[in-house]
Amino acid sequence: MSRSNRKRVLVVERHEASRRGLVALLEAEDVVVRSCADARQALVLARTEPFDALVLDLEVPADRVADLRAIVAARPDARLVWTSCDHPTFDLGAGTLVVKPIAIDTLLQHLGVVPR
To answer: Tell me, what DSSP letter sits at residue 10?
Structure first.
């Protein structure tokens, strides 16, 4: 698949090892991935780069839940996958929750990526 036709995903994960693992797994499936560890950087990326999907860790450092919702609002056309070690106690609004540890097949399905 040409680079211009590949899915573009923003991964926002606070744990470096988990972030690197997700990036490696997605890149192995021919996905173009940008990643970061905090809500501020994610918001900048979401506002300035095109993404087909967002993978957002609910435990990412953020001033408040509104920071995470602002990231989503910046890319309203993108698929949205929230990740967490448990179920949140607040309404996520849109998107799908994937509980960690993440099964790559489940994540790919929610991102709309056909496995290689």
So the answer is: E
Q: Are 80 and 54 in contact (CB under 8 A)?
A: yes
Q: What is the 3-state secondary structure (H, E, C) of 27-93?
A: HHCCCEEEEECCHHHHHHHHHHCCCCEEEEECCCCCCCHHHHHHHHHHCCCCEEEEEECCCCCCCCC
**Residue-wise pLDDT tens digits, 79-102:** 989 888 887 666 666 788 888 899
Strands 53-57 and 79-84: parallel
Helix axes 16-28, 104-111, angle to 10 degrees: 70
pTM: 0.87
Reading the block at residue 22, the tokens are 């997700």
Phi and psi at 23, nearest 5°, equal -60, -45
